[in-house]
Amino acid sequence: MFFKLSYLIETPTELIKFCLYTDGNDDYISALQDYFSPLVLTYGQKVKSVNGEKVFPAIKKAVFGTPDLRDVDTNMVECFNTILRASVSRLVRKTQCIAKNSFSLEDALYVFQFYWNFIHLQPNKLTPAMMECMTNKKWTWGMFLHTRLTFLQ
Has residue 16 been placed in a domain? Predict the structure, then answer.
């Protein structure tokens, strides 16, 4: 089961705001307002197209709060989306490897999530799991495939 964002972050307050940046899709604004008061948000957008036409340079704007517009960027997320699509064939826009049900898509994402966090080395020669002290070594596919699973009761 994938975790909802609300389980992974502390509840924002007016003193400790939830800070995020997205592209110029206005659907995010109403979705955020469904879950958060604008008073607890610091939200900026990087708009790269207007009415289907590319805008260069991109327009950075504050939507809620007072984000530092120099920090408003989506490049890391877009880069990770590219990595995810290249690694999980079910996420490619036009593919013959379509996920026939949500379980196969979730399973493919779980395998990628394990790979990315425990096997894939970052530029600092550590995996994200090593950086978070979840493991002290880089895992291999053999270790992953031969690990005995234990289930919590």
Answer: yes
Residue 84 domain flag: no
- What percent of the chain is helix, strand and coil (3-state, nearest 5)? 40, 20, 40
The SS3 call for residue 94 is: coil
Give the C-alpha separation, 128 to 1, whole Å: 20
Q: CA-to-CA distance for 128 and 140, rounded, in angstroms? A: 14
Tokens of 44: 């900026």
pTM greater than the 0.85 cutoff: no
Count of structural domains, the chain: 1
Q: Can you give the residue range of the structural domain that contains 29?
A: 1-73
Contact between 24 and 46 (Cβ < 8 Å): yes
> Could you read off the pLDDT of 39-87 as tens digits, one per residue?
999 999 999 988 888 988 999 999 999 999 999 999 988 998 899 888 8
The residue among 38, 120, 63, 118 whose CA lies nearest residue 87 is 120
Examine residue 3 and state whether it is found in any structural domain, yes or no: yes
